[in-house]
Design brief:
Radius of gyration: 18 Å
CATH class of the largest domain: Alpha Beta
Strand order of the largest sheet: 2-6-1-7-8
CATH superfamily of the largest domain: P-loop containing nucleotide triphosphate hydrolases
Helix content: 40-55%
Number of strands: 8
Shape: globular
Strand content: 5-15%
Oligomer: single chain
CATH topology of the largest domain: Rossmann fold
Number of domains: 2
Largest sheet: 5 strands, parallel
Length: about 270
């Protein structure tokens, strides 16, 4: 009997319900759900790219965290990836690791694709069972290629298809949570993602990243309105990308979370 090699991808803009869907579907369908910021087999977001010597030096600075560092690091070719957000670092050390991420314009598009392809191909070769990713396949790479490389749609589509080529031999499906109102979805996320004083730190941080990016500057995006415009554009682009994928996909209406959950469960659970 052939072992299962299933990969179920959940995508959508922030606030569409990806994380909740991944967690619930993991429980319902008995799958391993991987979350953003945790040590991830493919995603590069919230992972510092370090040499072995740099990782050893990091451990030497934090001997009390050695076990956690080892549990949250992985080999990637000749480099090491560290899921630094899991380590409880102070502000200065956190910022130092954040600056070593592959995203946010630190790698040229082709360099980034080479790193991503190595990650996805390696996972596909060793993958077993049922696996759920949220935001790793589309949100993070597409956001990077849009914001920091300002690539045309055709180039982004080609790069997405290169990632699909890394998944040969795997049973892949993608479910996209489409929101009918990007503005309303972001308003809800802005109200929920606040600090302990009620400040909308998530929305402020994201809007600043968008405004300061090459894409944001080229398209005159700033503040809250610029953030809404960006995600309206990104959702429209991603929906076109979904329809271009070579594996089964479904687009679910995220305005009804329970119905969307049932639709994704039925879609992923099909033989």
């Amino acid at each position: 009997m052939t072992a299962e090699k299933k990969l179920w991808l959940i995508e959508g803009i922030p606030g569409s319900g990806k994380s909740t869907a991944a967690r619930k579907l993991g429980q319902t369908l008995h799958a391993q759900a991987y979350n953003e910021a945790e040590l991830h087999p493919c995603d590069l977001a919230w992972h510092a790219v370090l040499s072995r010597a740099e990782l050893d030096a990091f451990i030497a600075r934090h001997p009390d965290k050695e076990r956690a560092i080892c549990e949250n690091s992985a080999v990637c070719g000749e480099q090491m990836l560290l899921a630094y957000a899991q380590l409880g670092l102070d502000g200065e050390e956190f910022a130092r690791m954040e600056a070593r991420e592959a995203f946010n314009g630190r790698y040229a598009p082709e360099e980034l694709m080479t790193l991503m392809e190595a990650r996805w191909r390696g996972f596909a070769q060793r993958m077993t069972g049922r696996n759920i990713f949220e935001c790793a396949f589309m949100q993070n790479p597409v956001g990077e290629l849009m914001l920091f490389d300002d690539l045309p749609e055709e180039e982004i589509r080609k790069m997405q298809l290169r990632l699909t080529g890394c998944l040969a031999g795997c049973d892949v499906k993608l479910g996209y949570l489409r929101v009918p109102s990007v503005r309303a979805t972001l308003e809800s996320a802005r109200a929920e993602r606040v600090d302990d004083k009620g400040n909308p730190v998530w929305a402020e941080g994201v809007s600043q990243i968008i405004a300061q990016s090459p894409y944001g500057r080229a398209h005159g995006l700033s503040g809250w309105e610029g953030m809404v415009r960006f995600y309206e554009t990104r959702q429209a682009l991603e929906l076109r990308l979904v329809r271009a994928m070579p594996f089964p996909t479904v687009i679910a209406d995220a305005s009804d979370h329970e119905r969307a959950q049932r639709e994704l469960a039925a879609f992923f659970g099909e033989a």
